[in-house]
Amino acid sequence: MAKNIVKLTSKDRKILYELDLDARASLSMIAKKVNLTKQAVKYRIDKLIERKIIEQTLLFVNGPKLGYVAYKFYIKLQNVTAEKLQNIVQDFVNHPFIVWVATCEGTYDIVIAPVSRNNVHAYQLLNEINRNYSKYIREITPLNYIDVSHLKKSYLTDTKRDGTASPYWGAEPEKYNLDEYEVKILTSLCADARKPITEIAREIGCSVDKITTRMKRLIEQNIIEGSTIILNKELIGITYYKILLNTRFFSEKEEQAFNEYAKSTECVMDVVRMMGSWNYELDIEVNNVYEFHSFMLKLRNKFTENIINYDSLLILKEHKLNFFPFKEHYISP
């Protein structure tokens, strides 16, 4: 944890909350919500970026709508120096089919989220990693994503979560055919989700109307699911854990109750359903290990008959998060 925790003002917290809800929200919309002028909001956002409190503006691209499925590979390393670890992480960051890369403390050392066109492609990716790093990998635990519900950082303003729909990643794979402009739009927005339409049009070399029409279609087709911000959790005193759960539910009602409880709990940021050694993953953001321990006690006591066992990882650093990294390898269905 950082030695010097940044103390956020209430106005900054409100601005961050609005950007978390929608990273593309206009300055005038945010200004109205936080009772500031547009100029004041712009100044504060620029400062939050300059101070690296906002690390990234993130576009949610729903991969299954484009025919891609996702996996998680939990990797335990061996014989690794700090330099070699950095090299391996950078290789994963540069990989066109890996969406997310993080280093962690616990049972595993690295977690990555590859996407693939099918199970054969996923198997090839797994074999590629095993071949390239056979000397350094002790174990890889692969899991298949079912879906992900991303929840809002209500702790920023101490607000209760309402029934507002969350960005979603999942569903049955489909075959939406992106045209060249849509590929370029997604690529541009994944680099900066707040990029203005006028700038995208200038960058791509087409009219604003064409960009507006394409974006509207991508949203209507649920390919663009929303946008948010990635915060420097260390700077603001937040600790990030992943909880891996092996669960058993005796009815749909029991599983629904578990989902509703997780999604209503302010420290839970993502609820992930998976298939494999673990079948649920919860992303938790808390102030310290004691809050984490308290949450786990409540969760295990409430769902004693449903949680068979669990593991937890302390996420040390997220090195990559891009829901459309395969742009240069995109294959039109």
Give the structure's gist in a few sentences.
By secondary structure, the chain is α+β, with helices and mostly antiparallel strands. The chain contains 10 helices and 11 strands.
The ordered H/E elements are HHHEEHEEHEEHHHEEHEEHE
Sheet with most strands: 8 strands, antiparallel, barrel
CATH C-level class of the domain at 177-220 is Mainly Alpha
Number of strands: 11
Helix- and strand-based class? alpha+beta
Share of helix, binned:
25-40%
Uncertain regions spanning at least 5 consecutive residues:
none
What does this structure look like?
This protein has a domain at 177-220: Arc Repressor Mutant, subunit A, CATH 1.10.10.10. The chain has 10 helices and 11 strands. The protein has helices at residues 10-21, 27-34, 38-50, 82-94, 119-132, 180-191, 197-204, 208-220, 252-264, 289-302, and strands spanning 54-61, 69-77, 98-105, 110-116, 137-150, 168-170, 224-231, 239-247, 268-275, 280-286, 307-321. The strands form 2 sheets. It has an 8-stranded antiparallel beta barrel, surrounded by 4 helices. A two-stranded antiparallel ribbon has the order 1-7. The longest helix is centred in the middle third of the chain and has 14 residues, at 119-132.
